[in-house]
């Protein structure tokens, strides 16, 4: 086999195939004039083709787009928007918490602020454990719904932190409640993100998909931090401006979250999707494809039908008196002995 800098290649050479390695290496194989196989290497084989290729290799999983699900890009774009909005509103909440803890107040003590923070973290840890115990087994099958629930609860927690200094008598109680909400968000959001990552990883590359998602989130949070550095000082003296900014960013955050989870096309059946598929089949005689079933799946918490399946019957439904139970038991024992 010859390379492109050797003889045997002309303008009329037939292209046989193109080989791509990741996003930064391309080689073309052509048929030379003498019938030999000629390898034509891309001029930038030893470097990145462009700035776009650099960011693709930096932020996207290896082998993208073939190594991930078809809904990967849509989900990540909307997830980036919601993460940026949440980062800025989180900075507004941090400013309110520091103000309520006594930063800038000469009468405040370090001990009081420390106790407030310890209580906030402690109640949050208890809430994290209780939520994982009560709802942990349900996060896999309803990953999209719980993902949306986690982000909604996160906005509620941020709102509580922003409003905490307005009611100084209930500051500790409000901060602790917000801490519990944020810890629940950590459990629900982290667990459902792992379930979505399993869905996105199509080549046993879950670790790579998870690592690149972390890089994307870090970059977005860095951008949010830079914006907050310029934005927070402008609104620090005006609570009305803070509330207005929070409302606008939260609206964007919720909309982006809804679009993100709605774009996910799960290829497995949970209770909601199975109910949708069965109802459509019994009504139309056709089986819905995964995309249509996912688009009809209810995502808002509390919506959707709940199905309870019971197998068998308890003993008290069969007999109501002890005499009947004794006769039933003795007849079964007698039948067993005869056999």
From TrEMBL:
<feature type="domain" description="Root UVB sensitive protein C-terminal">
    <location>
        <begin position="286"/>
        <end position="325"/>
    </location>
</feature>
<keyword id="KW-0812">Transmembrane</keyword>
<dbReference type="GO" id="GO:0016020">
    <property type="term" value="C:membrane"/>
</dbReference>
<feature type="transmembrane region" description="Helical">
    <location>
        <begin position="217"/>
        <end position="235"/>
    </location>
</feature>
<keyword id="KW-0472">Membrane</keyword>
<feature type="domain" description="Protein root UVB sensitive/RUS">
    <location>
        <begin position="49"/>
        <end position="284"/>
    </location>
</feature>
<feature type="transmembrane region" description="Helical">
    <location>
        <begin position="170"/>
        <end position="196"/>
    </location>
</feature>
<dbReference type="InterPro" id="IPR006968">
    <property type="entry name" value="RUS_fam"/>
</dbReference>
<comment type="similarity">
    <text>Belongs to the RUS1 family.</text>
</comment>
<dbReference type="Pfam" id="PF24160">
    <property type="entry name" value="UVB_sens_C"/>
</dbReference>
<protein>
    <recommendedName>
        <fullName>RUS family member 1</fullName>
    </recommendedName>
</protein>
<dbReference type="Pfam" id="PF04884">
    <property type="entry name" value="UVB_sens_prot"/>
</dbReference>
<keyword id="KW-1133">Transmembrane helix</keyword>
<feature type="transmembrane region" description="Helical">
    <location>
        <begin position="241"/>
        <end position="258"/>
    </location>
</feature>
<dbReference type="InterPro" id="IPR054549">
    <property type="entry name" value="UVB_sens_RUS_dom"/>
</dbReference>
<dbReference type="InterPro" id="IPR055412">
    <property type="entry name" value="UVB_sens_C"/>
</dbReference>
